[in-house]
């Protein structure tokens, strides 16, 4: 049986890190921002972005400049897909009630257009009268015309069960009609068949009942119920087969924005998950751009991109070492955008966990230079906004012959000191290098980036870390690839005393970015998939798929409001509903217990 596991990273590495420092990444200058229309303004003084400063320049005070505090809002755009009897109609009603989106169903549109005698309706009527399917071009034009109306522009849209084919999806793409989210209600066939076969129609009231889940209120109604022609088991199976073929063709177009939801639960449970997704998405689309904060730009489209709308999907060939500069830049920007969103939302205790091969100290291809570049990209971007950033690396722990630091961090402080921090004097003015501890917290610091803080055997960094965060008070502290699990020495130090408090403190940091590759149990090749979370969105589980052309892609399997367990990951890879649990055994059970 195929199992996927998280690449382990719970011991200090004994590998010799290789240095890989590249030229500095381009900073994201706020002078090039093109903000979307503003719904309201408030003006006040904030730090000025400085250029062309020499490294020896001393600035006791930061100059002031005018900044704008604005809110932007975009309506939601959602597509929902589901097999017959998946509960799609019910969820559409609940979504419209909660979020006020305009519900668009092609069946309703066709009937409305035909009844109104419009040009599109007349064309569609000719095909319908002849007993033929209405061509994709007519349906797509009809959908596009509806989406162009003012109520849709104001309220957003919910496209129900469309597109149904690859051709329809491609037509919408050509028109640049693309959703923010593609929801798929995933229900096992046996449940779908049971739901369909048990349905009954009241010919008098036109109401749909179900013998098991929604029985009629009276015996009188029960006696007049009839079975719809399409609700026989054979016809249901045929409809499911057609749906699966169409859904598989469409899914490739929206793979990067697809969220599969287990539709076998009650309508309340299913909607709760949908509501969480849409609320998070709405939170990303309705954003207060606070002074001193800077949205990332999509330079090709010239618009702000703090949401996942422009996310390009997971890059491929991640086992090719060294990683290309494009792949490294991709992850640096992905981490930066998630961190910016979290800080804009007022989060102050954050952690970043990114475990690509060059940032995984358990692999012999680990590169300390890649970690330093990630830290530099974060620090320079916040410094570009006028923030004073302190980059901190823990010092030696222990005493006497036991003094030392984790090998992963050996030489890190020196590397940071000698790195190229740009040509406008950021280091020393807006970026400073320090250690971890309360003594490192200065009044002028705006935020702190801590490089891979970790416990060593028999020594604990958490006391220094807690003292530092207490001194920092409301200022953001960001942990990059922290390892805060206890590592007991042979004498039992760190084994029991205060362990609960240490773990509680470590858990107080909220994850703003998580990326980890999945492998076969006990191996680090080949890559089977990945887990990604970018604040404030859900955890996304992807499967790596080899294509006939020799290329590869990552296809989303499921989303989770929390970091998925190993059992949940396995269930998703094996196509099992997430509500079914199993008990791992053998070596897989052993690894499950550890992780």
TrEMBL record:
Q: Which PROSITE patterns match?
A: ADENYLATE_KINASE
GO CC, alphabetical:
chloroplast
Where does the UniProt annotation locate this protein? Plastid, Chloroplast
* Top enzyme class: transferase
Entry's EC annotation: 2.7.4.3
Q: Give the molecular function GO annotations.
A: AMP kinase activity; ATP binding
Name the chemical reaction catalysed here: AMP + ATP = 2 ADP
Task: Name where it mostly resides.
Answer: plastid
Task: State whether keyword Transferase applies.
Answer: yes
Cited InterPro entries: Adenyl_kin_sub, Adenylat/UMP-CMP_kin, Adenylat_kinase_CS, Chloroplast_ADK, DUF1995, P-loop_NTPase
User: Any idea which UniProt keywords this protein has?
Assistant: ATP-binding, Chloroplast, Kinase, Nucleotide-binding, Plastid, Transferase
Positions of the DUF1995 domain: 328-569
Alphabetical list of CDD domains matching this protein: ADK
Per its UniProt record, what Pfam families does this chain match?
ADK (PF00406), DUF1995 (PF09353)
Q: Subunit info? A: Monomer.
NCBIfam families listed in its UniProt record: adk
Protein family according to the UniProt entry? Belongs to the adenylate kinase family.
Question: How is this protein named in the record?
Answer: adenylate kinase
């Amino acid at each position: 049986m195929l199992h996927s596991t998280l690449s382990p990273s719970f011991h200090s590495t004994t590998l010799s890190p290789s240095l890989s420092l590249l030229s500095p990444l381009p900073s994201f200058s706020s002078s090039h921002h093109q903000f979307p229309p503003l719904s309201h303004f408030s003006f006040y003084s904030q730090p000025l972005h400085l250029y062309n400063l020499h490294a020896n320049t001393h600035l006791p005070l930061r100059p002031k400049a005018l900044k704008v505090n604005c809110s932007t809002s975009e309506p939601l755009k959602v597509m929902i897909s589901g097999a017959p009897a998946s509960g799609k109609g019910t969820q559409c009603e609940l979504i419209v009630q909660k979020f006020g989106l305009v519900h668009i169903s092609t069946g309703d549109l066709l009937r409305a257009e035909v009844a109104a005698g419009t040009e599109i309706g007349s064309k569609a009527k000719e095909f319908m009268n002849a007993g033929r399917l209405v061509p994709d071009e007519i349906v797509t034009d009809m959908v596009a015309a509806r989406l162009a109306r003012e109520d849709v522009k104001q309220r957003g849209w919910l496209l129900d069960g469309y597109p149904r084919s690859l051709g329809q999806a491609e037509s919408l793409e050509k028109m640049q009609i693309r959703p923010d989210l593609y929801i798929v209600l995933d229900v096992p066939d046996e449940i779908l068949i049971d739901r369909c076969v048990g349905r009954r129609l009241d010919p008098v009231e036109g109401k749909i009942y179900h013998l098991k889940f929604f029985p009629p209120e009276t015996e009188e109604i029960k006696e007049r119920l009839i079975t719809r022609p399409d609700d026989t088991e054979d016809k249901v199976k045929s409809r499911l087969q057609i749906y699966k073929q169409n859904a598989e063709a469409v899914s490739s177009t929206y793979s990067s924005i697809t969220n599969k939801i287990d539709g076998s639960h009650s309508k309340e449970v299913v909607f709760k998950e949908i509501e969480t997704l849409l609320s998070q998405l709405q939170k990303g689309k309705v954003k207060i751009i606070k002074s001193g904060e800077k949205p990332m730009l999509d330079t090709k489209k010239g618009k702000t991109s703090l949401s996942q709308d422009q996310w390009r999907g997971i890059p491929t060939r991640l086992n090719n070492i060294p990683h290309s500069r494009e792949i490294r830049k991709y992850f640096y920007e992905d981490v930066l955008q998630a961190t910016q969103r979290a800080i804009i939302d007022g989060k102050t205790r954050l952690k970043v966990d990114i475990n690509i091969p060059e940032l995984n100290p358990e692999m012999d291809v680990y590169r300390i230079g890649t970690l330093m570049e990630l830290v530099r990209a974060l620090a320079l971007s916040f410094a570009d906004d006028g923030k004073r950033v302190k980059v901190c690396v823990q010092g030696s722990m222990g005493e006497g012959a036991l003094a030392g630091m984790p090998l992963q961090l050996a030489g890190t402080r020196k590397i940071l000191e000698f790195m190229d921090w740009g040509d406008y004097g950021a280091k020393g003015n807006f970026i400073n290098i320090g250690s971890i501890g309360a003594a490192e917290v200065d009044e002028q610091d705006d935020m702190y980036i801590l490089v891979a803080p970790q416990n060593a055997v028999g020594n604990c960094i958490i006391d220094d870390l807690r003292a530092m965060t207490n001194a920092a008070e409301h200022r953001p502290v960001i942990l990059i690839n922290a390892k805060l699990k206890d590592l007991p020495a042979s004498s039992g130090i760190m084994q029991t005393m205060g362990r609960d408090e240490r773990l509680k403190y470590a858990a107080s940091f909220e994850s703003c970015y998580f990326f980890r590759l999945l492998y076969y149990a006990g191996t680090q090749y080949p890559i089977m998939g990945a887990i990604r979370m970018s604040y404030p969105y859900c955890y996304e589980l992807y499967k790596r798929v080899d294509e006939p052309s020799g290329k590869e892609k990552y296809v989303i399997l499921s989303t989770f409001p929390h970091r998925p367990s190993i059992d949940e990951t396995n269930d998703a890879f094996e196509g099992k509903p997430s509500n079914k649990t199993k008990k791992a055994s053998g070596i897989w059970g052993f690894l499950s217990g550890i992780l």
